[in-house]
Input
Amino acid sequence: MNDTWDLSVLYTGFDDPAYAADLAALDAAIADFRQLAANAASMPAAALVRAFIGIYERMAVYEGKLSIYANLRFSGNTSDAEAVSMAGRLMDKLSATAADDAVLRAAIAGAEGLDDVIRDPAMSEYRYMLESIRDDARYLLSDKEENVLARMNISGAAAWSDLQSSLTSSVTADYNGEKITLSAVRNLAYDADPAVRRAAYDAELACYEPIKEAVAFALNSIKLQVINECALRGYESPLDQALKSARMKRTTLDALLGAMQEYLPCFWKYLRAKAKYLGYEGGLPWWELFAPIGKNDKKFTTADARDYLLNIFKGFDGQLHDMVKTAFNEGWIDFFPRAGKVGGAFDCGVPAVKQSRVLTNFDGSFSDVVTLAHELGHAFHDQQVFSHSPVTQDYSMPVAETASTFNEVLVVSTAIKETDDSDRETRLALIESQLSDAAQIICDIYSRYLFETSVFENRSQEFMNAERLCGLMTEAQKAAYGDGLDESTLHPYMWLCKSHYYSGELSFYNFPYAFGGLFARGLYAKYEKEGSAFVPVYKKMLNATSVTDVEDCARIAGIDLGDKAFWEAGLQSLADEIDEFCKLVEA
Output
């Protein structure tokens, strides 16, 4: 089992003849795409749609392989100049097709007879995509304007995003007389020694000082670009754009946020109980958020993590078990932190080979094992949509966190069930790990939502320097964490280290985590009730995530997302765990 991922299934390097061949094939597909745009106005609807899909699929296949390889190379080593150069080159090629894409989508949306094409059984795989093209046409600009925006984005939001990634992956923290990466110092928040956790917190905050203003410029620039583009396109707000991109109704978001607000005091109760267990009066200091509790201090090797997860997943679904086994044994995962490697964790589907690649910063804790389960849940979701056409495999933000969080709940709930009630310390540790993650998707995600909302509200009127952004972040944390945290020890730089804020195309990448977490708990409750009969429904629902709206997708599992009671049920299950946690702490 390798420590780093194997990218040779795509290419052996940028000098691989296959890379040059695919680059040439992409150029040919782009040329055909442009020619189709030139002829679109004179073509019948059926011929136009079929030609568009055929060329679009070719572009998606080659661009996917080429870009994924470049971006994975960059994620593993942000100083990889070849990867940066090639990623930029590919972005330039694709941005040059923006005008043609706008022409074709407008032509398809306005084509006489489009409804007949959509109803054609032979086009059923593409029905949702075509309906979306028709519905989204009102937000398209002229072909020239689309071209200008796409080209300007290369040196605009995309460049600012790369700057944030580069600065946060290369900055070092001074910890105990040595310089360590940001990922490494953040991982120390899980250390068993409270002195280490506190020192790591101080070192982390200090390391942001030399880069904070540069990253503040990046955030301000990206958000202003989003505001201006939303106004040009006719969206009511960046949130309106995010919801439409998410294929999610505002009623669903309101029901979700309303339920979260109602249950916030339960999580404050949990945080105060954890503080009491650790010997603090009042709220919990920030550096203790991930402090291990109980005796679940086992360190896992990557082989241990593999065997642990396989043992759990084999009881749920054979396909999931076999995929995870392959992922560990055949180089799908880049495990450990190192200089230049981006922080955090992610999954990247690789449709060309029907595999995924997973990046983590593994340190051996149980939390790291759960993180692996989470990212491998994304990979399992990838497997469910790989059966679709290359142009109908993308699913929206909210459902993107469903399979990943379901895996988390499955792993931790199984571990809790297998723990003897008399073993209070182990049970306490497992319940706390689940509540710690839940507090992140409820309290922390809510604080991120509040922060991003305030950034968008203020950016049109002012440039927010690092100090101002830190102030907005601490206010958001106070509202979300209440008296659960010690207000004198918050984390004012959470805006700087989280990459989710730094996208010109994907705003409000926060509420999907809360959606995914609570939606997954609702699905897990159905699994507990229905047993193995639930699994095919679950996989059918995952398969539908890329070809239907969020609400219609949930209906496959018999769920009404606009009903606040559904979200409250998931939160109540967490509230019950909080009550048990508090009793164990008292004991």
User: Anything to note?
Assistant: The radius of gyration is 24 Å. The chain has 25 helices and five strands.
